[in-house]
Specification:
heterodimer, A: alpha/beta, Rossmann fold, Arc Repressor Mutant, subunit A, 5-stranded parallel β-sheet, 4-stranded antiparallel β-sheet, 8 helices, 12 strands, B: alpha+beta, Helix Hairpins, Heat Shock Protein 90, 3 domains, 5-stranded mixed β-sheet, 9 helices, binds adenosine-5'-triphosphate, binds magnesium ion, phosphoprotein (chain A), two-component regulatory system (chain A), DNA-binding (chain A), Sig_transdc_resp-reg_receiver (chain A), transcription regulation (chain A)
């Protein structure tokens, strides 16, 4: 993927760029809003990562300007700590996602991957499959290797979410946002307990592990 | 209306006016009554003297005939309404301008002239047996009655206008002063709820003492605003200066963990460092968030929020964690609780903080209930548990930033959860109370504002 990073803090900018390059993306890194706007108007990037506070032109104005000009490149806002306004302001301005600094690289990587492939594949499918698992979305039935698995509605929703994003990591915060529409970080390991309940039904009775834990990032069902 | 009346009655100027009116009325009553009594008594005395003197004059007559002629002569000149003269002579004839007639109601003076056959009113009479007959002279007391009427008139004419003027003046003043006091109170309210820009701005027409108070309040607010601004500046400078380095440390640690192949103690150190930086970030984030909400998150972002839906989300989210630690977490939702105007994300976080507290600060096996119901016109949200509770003396303290009970030293957390709950509650105009759930803690939030009937 071709990714544009507009970030004025050098350490953070290099960190993002290096990480993304290691994952095989090509990265353009600029450090102010004006340069960012010029780069972005080319319209050749798959995803933009934009710091909200930028010299010259701030991130919000930048995205608003691009959107007004018809540029639809998915954008992820980076916001600094403790700003209540940021999420809603950013999303209203035309941002597609946001992330509060500091963040683990795994979080950024997972979100960038999610942005690039919006909307999720298989939207039309009525049956989702992975390994020996089949989820019938209409009958709301799940089987694995032909064995029926009884899931509670919430467990069903989590599994469906992971299945629809097969091969991509879903972080704890992404799951919180998608399943419960929660934008803060609960202190206790609530997501882990939900996943382990799900695993107890989906994985434990079988030989292979379907829901993988990705260290320092989140969970994934392999394609 | 009734409340307005009582508050008016309790206002200072009206009370003063009422007291003055009462005093004035009392003094007038006493002095007028005394004057009247004295005057009436001396009038009476004068009447008596007059009667005795006249009687003495009549006694001077040598015989009955002379007396009869004297009476007759004087009677002709005298109006019986003023004075009655009556002589029953020994020859059984009657002389005078009126006679005493007797009927079932007692004695009446009956005039001898045609036009006023019967006289009424009080008379003071003196009777004497003279020359074998009976002479009665009586003077009307109508003048005293007139005097009384006069005094009553004076009383009414002087008191009624005074009372009316004083009362309406009092009400007017009371209204005005109530308005002024209201202005001061309104400003104080704003100041205490965090609007440090509020000022009374005294009007020149105000009374000196009130204007003085208003001036002092404004001065105080000025000083407070500037010192708060200074503190805010310092802390936001600190926050800003620290944000970037913290972020960089986190970045370096993250890179280290992804690239360096650390093993054993080094890997553990790195994990610990990352956990610490996470904690710093979270405390820092919470402090900044609390400060920002306190400094006034725009209420314009408020939308109708269905608290019942938020409770459902929370219970659903925490139920597995609760089960894992042996807690029983349940929702108790009354039907048809209306929505409240608010910030959904903040309210959800408020609820999550309370549920997390109940999970974290109570022993396994405790029961946690999140209840939502209507309480009068307000919406009441309560999170209760059956744990150790918070001692009464500590209930104020735990709302302070970074404050934790001694017994909680061993559990994770930083003492910011309830601080956030309290500022979010204040932002929503909700009253927050920590109560004894006997046993356990019950946190009750009462939202006075609601938006229409809600979905259940
Ligand atoms: N439900 C409860 N039962 C007993 N004690 C409580 C309860 N809730 C809070 N407390 C006490 O009040 C203190 C302050 O609570 P608060 O939520 O502000 O901080 P915390 O839970 O310790 O940390 P944080 O919420 O920041 O992670 C706690 O440390 C605990 O001692
Ligand atoms: Mg807490």
């Amino acid at each position: 993927m071709k990714i544009l990073v507009i970030e004025d803090d050098e350490t953070t900018g290099q960190f993002i760029a290096r990480g993304l390059r290691e994952e095989g993306h090509s990265v353009d890194l600029v450090t102010d809003g004006r340069a960012g706007l010029i780069e972005a108007t080319g319209g050749t990037h798959d995803v933009m990562i934009v710091d909200r506070m930028l010299p010259e032109i701030d991130g919000l104005t930048l995205i608003k300007t691009l959107r007004a000009a018809g540029n639809r490149t998915p954008a992820l806002f980076l916001t600094s700590l403790g700003s209540v306004e940021d999420r809603i302001g950013g999303l209203n301005a035309g941002g597609d996602d946001y992330l509060v600094k500091p963040f683990a690289f795994g979080e950024l990587s997972a979100r960038v991957a999610a942005l690039a492939r919006r909307p999720p594949a298989q939207e039309q499918d009525t049956v989702l499959k992975a390994g020996g698992l089949e989820m019938d979305l209409i009958a709301r039935k799940v089987t694995r290797d032909g064995v029926t698995i009884d899931l509670l509605p919430r467990e069903f929703a989590i599994l469906e979410h992971l299945l629809r994003r097969k091969g991509r990591v879903q972080t704890r915060t992404m799951l919180l946002e998608a399943i419960w529409d929660i934008s803060f970080d609960p202190m206790t390991n609530v997501v882990e307990t939900h996943i382990s309940r799900l695993r107890a039904k989906v994985d434990k009775p079988f030989d292979t592990e379907l829901i993988k834990t990705v260290r320092g990032a989140g969970y994934r069902i392999d394609a | 209306m009734k409340a307005r009346l009582t508050s008016l009655l309790r206002s200072m100027p009206l009370r003063l006016a009422l007291a003055l009116v009462l005093l004035f009325t009392l003094v007038s009553l006493i002095s007028l009554t005394a004057t009247y009594l004295v005057t009436a008594r001396s009038f009476d005395q004068a009447l008596r003297n007059d009667l005795t003197q006249r009687m003495a004059g009549f006694r001077a007559a040598p015989n009955a005939l002379a007396l009869a002629q004297l009476v007759e002569a004087e009677a002709r000149e005298t109006d019986p309404e003023r004075m009655v003269l009556s002589y029953f002579a020994p020859n059984l004839r009657h002389y005078g301008n009126a006679a005493l007639a007797r009927d079932s109601e007692g004695y009446h003076v009956v005039s001898l002239s045609q036009d006023s056959p019967r006289l009424t009113g009080q008379y003071l009479a003196l009777t004497a047996a003279l020359h074998g007959g009976q002479l009665t002279i009586a003077r009307s007391r109508s003048e005293i009655a007139a005097l009384r009427r006069g005094f009553l008139n004076i009383l009414v004419l002087s008191l009624v206008p005074t009372v009316l003027v004083a009362l309406s003046g009092g009400v007017l003043l009371a209204r005005r002063s109530a308005r002024n006091v209201q202005a001061v109170a309104h400003t104080l309210d704003k100041l205490t709820t965090g609007d440090l820009k509020a000022r009374v701005g005294a009007v020149p027409a105000w009374s000196d003492d009130l204007a003085e108070i208003a001036g002092r309040i404004d001065q105080m607010a000025e000083a407070q605003e500037s010192s708060v601004a200074a503190i805010k500046q310092v802390s936001s400078d600190i926050a800003h200066d620290l944000k970037t380095p913290i972020q960089r440390v986190a970045v370096h640690l993250d890179e280290l963990s992804r690239h360096a192949e650390l093993t054993g103690a080094a890997a553990e150190d790195l994990d610990r460092a990352q956990a610490e930086i996470d904690r710093i970030v979270s405390v820092f984030g919470s402090l900044l968030q609390i400060a920002q909400i306190e400094s006034g998150t725009p209420r314009s972002r408020f939308r109708p929020v269905d608290l019942g839906a938020l409770v459902a989300i929370c219970v659903d989210l925490y139920e597995p964690s609760a089960a894992e630690t042996g807690h029983v977490l349940a929702a108790d939702l009354a039907p048809d609780v209306p929505a409240v105007p608010g910030d959904r994300d903040l309210l959800l976080q408020l609820l999550a903080n309370l549920v997390e507290n109940a999970l974290r600060h109570t022993p396994p096996g405790s029961r946690i209930t999140v209840a939502l119901k209507l309480s009068g016109p307000a919406v009441r949200l309560a999170v209760s548990d059956s744990g150790p509770g918070i001692p009464e003396a500590e209930r104020e303290n735990v709302l302070r930033r970074l404050y934790r009970l001694d017994r909680s030293r061993g559990t994770p957390g930083s003492g910011l959860g309830l601080s956030l709950v309290s500022v979010v509650a204040r932002l929503h105009g909700a009253e927050m109370r920590l109560e004894d759930n006997a046993p356990g803690l019950r946190v009750v939030l009462t939202f006075p504002d609601v938006v229409g009937p809600g979905s259940s």
